[in-house]
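The passage that follows is intended for readers who have already worked through the single-chain material. We present the inputs for a multi-component assembly, then the predicted structure in tokenized form, and finally a short commentary. You are encouraged to pause after the input and sketch how you expect the pieces to fit together before reading on.
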Amino acid sequence: MISAETTGPSSPAVCIAPPDLESLFESLKKQGYQLVGPTVQNGAIVYDTLESVTDLPIGWTEEQEAGTYRLKRRDDEALFGYTVGPHSWKKFLFPSQQRLWQGRKKGDGSFETLVDEEPAPRYAFVGVRACDLHAIQIQDQVFTGGSYQDPVYAANREDNFIVAVNCGQAAETCFCTSMNTGPRVDEGYDIALTEIIDSTSHYFVAEAGTERGNNLLAQIPARTAEPEDKRAAQACTEQAKAEIERFIDTTDVKELLYRNYNNPHWEELQQRCLACGNCTMVCPTCFCSKVEDTTDLTGQHAERWRSWDSCFTLDFSYVHGGSVRSSVKSRYRQWLTHKLATWVDQYGSSGCVGCGRCITWCPVGIDITEEVAAIRKSDKANTDG
Amino acid sequence: MVKIRHINDLLAEAPLFEGMEPEQLAILAGCGKLAHFRPGEFLLKEGEEANQFFLIRHGEVALESHLPGGVLTVAKAGEENVVGYSWLFPPYRNQFDARATTDVDAIVLDGECLRGKTHKDHELGYQFMKRFAALMLQRMQAARRQLLDIYGQPNPENS
Amino acid sequence: MMETAVPTVRITEPVPFKIEKVVPELPDCFTFSLTPSETKLPFVFAPGQFNMLYAFGHGEVPISLSGDPADTGKLIHTIRNVGSVTAALQKLKVGDSVGVRGPFGSSWPLEGARGRNVLIMAGGLGLAPLRSAIYYLLANRSEYGTISLLYGSRDPGSILFADELEEWSQKIHVGLTADSASPDWNGQVGVVTELLSQREIVPNTVALVCGPEIMMRFCAYALLDCGLLPADVYVSMERNMKCALGFCGRCQYGPYFVCHDGPVFSFDRVERLFKIREV
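Having made your guess, compare it with the prediction:
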């Protein structure tokens, strides 16, 4: 569903001064894009509408650990000197609340349904991390890669302009390297920026990944990138890689989880997991939803709304007779096994991109990397059944 | 050698095998070993090949079947009870889960071994089957009484 | 080897269908016969598939099609009142509208079973999704070997489609049993697997099984013990469903989405999942 064509690595990289990023924003706005990207709100770096470069979290970074998130001032004015916050791009592509259709009773007793005709916004995402870019591609597969296409996602994703930003640092909870999703973006972007910042200089190395990315870069003041600029850009992402502390051994992780449905370790999680669902809300690939059918007092008008839901709720698996997954351990097992194992059989890739949000935002600090390691340790090959 | 004699003694103490000759008990003991289960562990799993039965020495085992929405306990077995009858006849398939609800000490008897021994020694076979048939009769009657309880109320949907 | 018909109505918004007939089957169970309000398109479905039925303003539920697939002019659904949406549906009368999306899901392997014997085991309301298969098999009788239906109900008063069972027994073997009964019941008493032990199961048989999950498990094991291969035993699974399109994630069963990988599964695909609690 990525409509722009990809150009090869032969597009020359350019260097942009931070003030000139504003003209990048202006160009995008002139083309009718709605800019969304990182900004500081309520003590976190979230994704919201951007009017100008000054809305970016300039000079901010975060401290992240299991169950911990706080903003911290940097000692420089980096525009993208953080990693990821509680929001992910699914906020825009797969809105948390969406009216699917309205219904109206007709005189003859039947009814008609009306879908909102409003055109979908054309989003330009600014500041897309490599892990999140992979997450978008994973959700492309979920919502548009099967026999049915979700019209809401497809419309939001069409003509979606991506300005990716390579990471120059890693949070304690990051583990993109284990999932092969970063810290460098590889494809699926229109423009990729790497922020070079030190005591003597501050600029961006920019590369186009598509024809239209190239055209946009051509419109803004820039100089050709020299070899030392490209080396500096490379060093940035190497630095991010070096800072990564967490790790999942993904060797055979699908088979591992498939044979450990009855591992006693799940019982241990029952003691800790609150089934609050935070992990599913912040996870950039989680896609489960519920629908609510409502009617007004007259009973003549109805609406169907879709909203995010979580496999951690009791209702999620309810069938006549009760919930299939009534214990918390079975729900945690479902989430982990789906994310790392059944997802592979369903969509051809892992569901996890190593962004670490589930670790940061879990109120009791459950760490997916530790849980997989624990399962591996207590793995009994003939546990199943 | 010590272990087999130990099982021998345990079998001799079991009310189930009361009246059996020492030589017969020795043959049975040859098919047995001791097992311990922690609470929550499964002795038998529904659907799998039935090749063992358990004589519970200490603790309690629940016979269960799971379904969407929960788990049904159909029976419980405590001290001196037997768990597992499906090993006696084909298709040798466990019909229920048997799960330890407490710590459980049990004597596990190997089905194939026992079937072989009783096939060869018909007197042993008779003594064994006599006792098992009595147990199964008890179970069947208890199960039927349970059914009466479940179905005994006039069906409110049909009235 | 799954035969699926492509949806012939819109898949995201329900299309209104008029209730042309309501047949009360049991106190909590009724059958709708629906005809299209707007479109005259033939509604094509394969036995085993389901529609999402919408009670205006209340919600949708997945209900299997239980009518004759050869009759493309109407939809037959047998529904049990178990929740707020089905309760709302039960209140509707002839002339009222029901929203329809579908058909969805996999179907009974009727094409693949040609030339083979077919054994159908139904428990309780499970007979409804199998009825459309039975209609098809009877309409194409010469294409199949022996056809048998073994049906177990909770009690004689809960037997579904009793008149049709009588008709069918003239053409195929029909075995009936009730879990419990009163003296005026002439039929068998016991669970449906006991009917199986009384039949001689011929080789080259495909089995279609539908009913409560425990019943399907026991029937599947019994069929394997009769010598059927797991790939020749088919079950119909049920899970929470909202979208029927594989997007809401609720109907997941291991790696499968019951809405599009199922609801009909061959037992070899789900045998290991049946054994796992709360999966």
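Commentary: The longest strand of chain B covers residues 70-77. Residues 7 and 48 of chain B are 26 Å apart (CA to CA). How closely did your sketch match?
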